[in-house]
Amino acid sequence: MIPRRRLLKLAVASPLVISAATQVACGFIQRGSEDISFTQFGTLLTFNHEQANTLFAFSEACLALEPGEIIDANVIARLDEEFYFVSSFIRSDFKLALNVMEYLPIVYGSFSRFSKLSTIQREDLLDKFSHTKSDTVRAVVHNLRMAVMLTFYGHESSWSAIKYDGSFSNIPAQQSTQRKHYQERTTAATQAHQHEGRKV
Amino acid sequence: MRKSIYEYSDYNGGEHFNTQVVVIGTGCGGASVAKKLSDQGIDVILLEQGGYYPSSKMDQNELNMAGKLYGERSFATSHDAGNVLAYGNNVGGASVHYWADSYRTPPEKIQRWRDHFQIEGHDTEDLNPAFEEIEAELNIHQADDSLFNTMNSKLRSATEALNWHAHRVPQARKNCLKSGHCMQGCRYDAKQSQLVTHIPKALKNGAKLFADARAGKLIHSKGKVTGLEVGIMDRASNKLSGKYFTISATSIVVAAGGFNSSFYLMQQTFASTLPALGKYFSMNPSTIVHAMFDEDITQWRNIPAAWGVDEYRIRTHQIQATKDQNADNYTEGGYLLMPNQLHPAALAATIPGIGKDHREWMKNLNQVGGTIAWMDDIEEELGEIRVKDDGHREVFYEYGPLTKKVLKDGIKKQVLVNFQAGAKKVLVAGIQAITFESADQIDKLEELKFEAGGLFMASPHPGGGCRMGRSIESSVVDSKHRVHGFENLFVADSSVFPTSSSLDPSLTIMAFSYIAANHIAQYINSSEVDA
Fold it and tell me: Three-class SS string for B168-194?
């Protein structure tokens, strides 16, 4: 989705970004697609804590919603699920894009990581990133933005505010074999984690 | 009753099957070939790496259906993230989520392919019988007034006022309920996709369908394929299960679609002997313009495109006579205009802006209409399918100088026609979020930059990569759809197109595949096989 070569070129722009990208790259190798993280957004199989936090911060700035609306739409968990099922190179690029986004403010002169900025600061930065001359930065913003928009506005909790009436025949959403698989895996991981916690 | 459809839960691994023809892919190409071969009593196995989802599995939910019907759940893009690649990953392929637009191949394309690329046996008189048969089979007919939603009606009025040539779009539908969920798969079996036409007919003829079955290594020797390995998908995890089965066959047909057929053959390491493999790739890059109206548009109901505007379909240049058509002498045109139809998730992804600006458009989504321009790819500026070092597919497509001019002109005409249709505000789908308050501001389009990820575009009409032609240096298959250097390996889908087909390619793919089926049947019944 985003050329890996370009992402790495961007990483050269900052030692901190290099460090971050390296950590993420190592994480891909060590954990692969079976990564399990227990986060405030639930048990995740694709993103780690930091990536989930960056994604949430990005979503907040991108969507301009009332507090709680992103949580209602399960944006982080739904994206975690979507990227669990795509090819490994698309998943890796998306995760790398999140990590680049987290440290990008530093390249642009801010002394804070993306997820630590206020919503207004994040909105301003995203606007700046959207108009940058860097193909890679624009591609990072575009890809993250597209995924967040698809996921948030694909969830029925967002529809009443935009007057979308959903399924033409009011057909209830059907859980696919893959959605069931994801749910079973996260539930099993959560239960195992809770069991481990009780033992400790 | 004999079982004809097999899914992931039906395989144990280690099975071996024998058949006359294996068809890899079940979209317009593969399903049409299978139907025509089975009509002649030829034993066929259809392979599909995606799942089998009949209409009862279609819940009209964008994200749910993207997970079932779209390759990479709609997250695949071209190399620079500029184009979303929309293709099928399910039984029936992209025909299950396409718009049902069903055009015959434009005459100038047939002529170009014959005269310049020396394509034989695909002339008007060869294709017409196939067109007629398919049109009857799929109930293809011009959209009547009942199929015009508000945006289609507005576009019709606007083009009539501008005196732009336009037409009712031919549709493959039967008893359409106008739900507007074409892109999520038709719940009512009204859209005449392969899932409800060629595939059931092939199965009735005795063909077998193996879903959740990914074609693997081709077994071949001295220019003859004898079978292949098939990886069984675990549908739950969407990964290969590690189990395999094998098929022996007299002939194999690759019909994995424009994004994947050349990729599959490259995975077989055929690129060293087929230098044109993956090259000359087209995809009808489509620019999108959103328009805000005072009244409700509700673009997501009724059919997507009942009205097509072909005033600018043919590109024009100042120096026509010399045939020296380049960016310097480009005048205008080179695209088909249509109303757009998207549901909220895809609309949100293509409406530019971040934060409050974007939210404002979303809050008024019911009043948002707009158009799309399907660009006829420039022959000299085509893309390429590549295999990266780690084995993944890359769709490389850079915008050349003439391509940029055509895309820009397509956006310009869309801005103008939307204002003519009564729009109060028009927005170009791109990261720059160029907004127009009136047609007088059209010069703002000069601000448009063609940068990676700059325009939000989708490309559901791939072609090329296995170009048809005479020479092994510049093409992959001959006019019999046979891969150069092989006696019994064929390709039957849009990847054989020498250039872009200009319009929705589904009917062209099916007609070409009918012709391919005749050649494959001739091979099966010939002395070559006995020898």
Answer: ECEEEECCCCCCCCHHHCCCCCCECCH
**DSSP per-residue letters across A4-22:** HHHHHHHHTT-HHHHHHHH
Interface of B with A in 477-516 (CB under 8 A): none
**Residues of chain B where predicted confidence (pLDDT) is lower than 70:** 1-2, 320-323, 527-531
> Which sign does the torsion angle of CA B93, B94, B98, B103 carry?
negative
Q: Do B355 and A64 touch (CB under 8 A)?
A: yes
CB B297 within 8 A of CB B368: yes
Please answer yes or no on whether B453 and A143 come within 8 Å at the CB atom: yes
Alpha helices, DSSP H, located in chain A: 4-11, 15-31, 49-63, 69-72, 75-84, 88-107, 119-130, 135-153, 159-162, 177-199
Which SS3 state, helix, strand or coil, does residue A193 take? helix
Contact B240, B230 (CB under 8 A): no
The residue to which tokens 């301003």 are assigned: A124
Domain B1-75+87-106+189-281+463-496+516-531 sits in CATH at: 3.50.50.60
Q: Are B199 and B53 in contact (CB under 8 A)?
A: no
Cα–Cα distance measured from residue A56 to residue A59, given in angstroms and rounded to the nearest whole number: 5
For residue range B298-333, what is the model confidence (pLDDT) as tens digits? Answer: 999 999 999 999 999 999 998 765 567 888 899 999
Residue A22 has pLDDT above 50, yes or no: no
CB contact under 8 A, A138 and B343: no
Q: Which helix (H) or strand (E) holds B39?
A: helix B28-39
Contact A167 B61 (CB under 8 A): yes
Kindly state whether B51 is in contact with chain A, defined as any CB-CB distance less than 8 angstroms. Answer: yes
A89·B73 Cβ contact <8 A:
no
User: Residues of A numbered 127-186 whose beta carbons fall under 8 angstroms of chain B's beta carbons: which are they?
Assistant: 127, 130-131, 135-136, 138-139, 141-143, 145-147, 149-155, 158-159, 161-164, 166-169, 171-174, 176-181
- Residues of A within 8 A of B63 (CB-CB) are 78, 82, 150-151, 154-155
Q: Which of A142, A159, A183 to mutate to test the interface with B (most CBs of B within 10 A)?
A: A142
Cβ–Cβ gap B59/A167 under 8 Å: yes
Inter-chain CB proximity A152 and B454 less than 8 Å:
no
Q: Where are the domains of chain A?
A: 4-30+41-157
Fold topology of B140-173+285-459: Cholesterol Oxidase; domain 2 (3.30.410)
pLDDT in tens, B330-349: 999 999 999 999 999 999 99
Nearest CA in chain A to B70: A86
The one-character DSSP state at B316 is E
- Burial of residue B41, with CB atoms counted within 10 A of its CB: 0-12 exposed, 13-18 middle, 19 or more buried: exposed
Closest Cα in chain A to B393: A89
**Beta bridge partners of residue B233, listed in sequence order:** B240
Contacts for B354 with CB less than 8 Å, ≥ 6 apart = A61, A62, A64, A123, A126, A127, A130, A145
Residue B250's alpha-carbon distances to B255, B481, B488, in angstroms, are 16, 16, 7
Whether the CA torsion B191, B196, B202, B208 is positive or negative: it is positive
Asked if A138 lies within 8 A of B451 by C-beta distance, the reply is yes
Looking at the partner chain, which of A85, A135, A139 has a beta carbon nearest the beta carbon of B238?
A85
- Phi, psi values for residue B35, rounded to 5°: -65, -50
**Selected residue of A80, A122, A145 to mutate for chain B interface (largest B Cβ count, 10 A):** A145
Q: Please give the model's pTM, rounded to 2 decimal places.
A: 0.94
Q: What is the dihedral of CA B154, B158, B163, B168, to 10 degrees?
A: -20
d(Cα B317, Cα B336) in Å, to the nearest integer?
17
- Token pair listed for B229: 């390995």
pLDDT at B306: 98
